[in-house]
Amino acid sequence: MLTDPISDMLTRIRNALMAGKTELVFPHSSIKESISGILKREGFITDFMVEEKEIKVILKYDGREPAIVSVRRISKPGCRVYSSAKDIKYVPGGIVILSTPNGIITGREAKRQKVGGEVICEVY
């Protein structure tokens, strides 16, 4: 049993990129689906599909270079990290993903909506 399924998802993405894979599969959850949707909308992955109890992600590459340079888990089960709207960190060339009362959104959207929340991860 996993204690941190989001961290598992991010690690699978990181490992697939380092191995040069074009696609990967991980167990489905609504949070992982929301994070995958944000990564697609922001241009970090090509596409994702929900199949039965799994999410299949098609990774994006620019030539041989992956679109995702780094993916880092911020808030962990043992140490939760929260941020107010005004204190959300800016990531040059990347995004911060937060869990807010308005759902899973990027830091840019959270600032626009003036809402804070738990900082899930940063991707660039």
Entry keywords:
single chain, 124 residues, alpha+beta, Ribosomal Protein S8, Chain: A, domain 1, Dna Ligase, domain 1, five-stranded antiparallel β-sheet, three-stranded antiparallel β-sheet, 3 helices, 10 strands, globular
Could you write a compact summary of the structure shown?
By secondary structure, the chain is of the alpha+beta class. Helices cover 27% and strands 35% of the residues. The protein has 2 domains: 5-66, Ribosomal Protein S8, Chain: A, domain 1 (2-Layer Sandwich), CATH 3.30.1370; 71-123, 2-Layer Sandwich (Dna Ligase, domain 1).
Give helix % range: 25-40%
Radius of gyration: 14 Å
Q: What would the CATH topology of the largest domain be?
A: Ribosomal Protein S8, Chain: A, domain 1
Major β-sheet profile: 5 strands, antiparallel
* Level-1 CATH class name of the largest domain: Alpha Beta
The proportion of residues in beta strands is 35-45%
- As residue ranges, the low-confidence spans are none
CATH architecture of the largest domain: 2-Layer Sandwich
Structural class: alpha+beta
Mean pLDDT: 96
- Shape descriptor reads globular
Number of DSSP strand runs:
10
| Termini Cα gap | 29 Å
Q: Total helix count?
A: 3
Assembly state (oligomeric):
single chain
Q: Secondary-structure element sequence?
A: HEHEEEEEEEEHE
Any idea how many domains?
2
